Amino acid sequence: MPSHEATRVVVERALARVKAYDAEGYADVFADDGVLEFPFAPAGWPTKLEGRAAILASTRLNFARARDAGRKFTELRPVVHDGADPATAVVELEARVEASATGRSCTLRYVHVYRVREGRVASLRDYFSPDQMREVKALSASPAVG
Question: Can you tell me the distance from the alpha carbon of 53 to that of 30, in angstroms, rounded to the nearest whole number?
């Protein structure tokens, strides 16, 4: 069983890969049988990805779309709460996303629940708001001229 510190190291490694839009590095943080869940996923999004290969395929697509739209994380501020079980961490995240083409930005707030096994993410539940995801996508859109 990992220590709280070992779990935090895995969480920090995962978040660094997200901020860098490094799909391969992010997927590599997961166990081969790792699970990534999106309990509040909007229509058209998967609610559960099972296995590192599925996580890589989805993450690669989503990171490429964000990059192609000129969006990037300018800040990622996690607050990590240790769980009663040292293999579990609850992370409150505040992320600043900016679109290079428009100069617009927004702040996202969400929660991750990590379960770590043998130095890798065994499961991650990503509780994000679909409304905030629509706001992020709108950052890249040209403002309406009226």
Answer: 10
DSSP annotation of 62:
H
- Torsion over CA of 92, 130, 46 and 56, rounded to 10 degrees? -50
Residue at 70: amino acid letter: G
User: Which CATH architecture group holds 4-139?
Assistant: Roll (3.10)
What are the extents of the domains in the chain? 4-139
Collapsed DSSP state (helix, strand, coil) of residue 130: helix
pLDDT digits (tens, 9 = 90+) for 19-46: 999 999 999 999 999 999 999 988 888 9
Sign of CA pseudo-dihedral 26, 109, 107, 101: positive
**Alpha-carbon gap, residue 143 to 112, rounded angstroms:** 32
Distance CA 24, CA 29 (A): 9
Distance, in Å, from the CA atom of 106 to the CA atom of 30, rounded to the nearest integer, reads 28
Beta-strand pair 88-99/71-82: antiparallel
Q: Which two tokens stand for residue 114?
A: 């990590």
Question: Using an 8 Å Cβ cutoff, are 117 and 14 in contact?
Answer: no
Tokens of 83: 């769980």
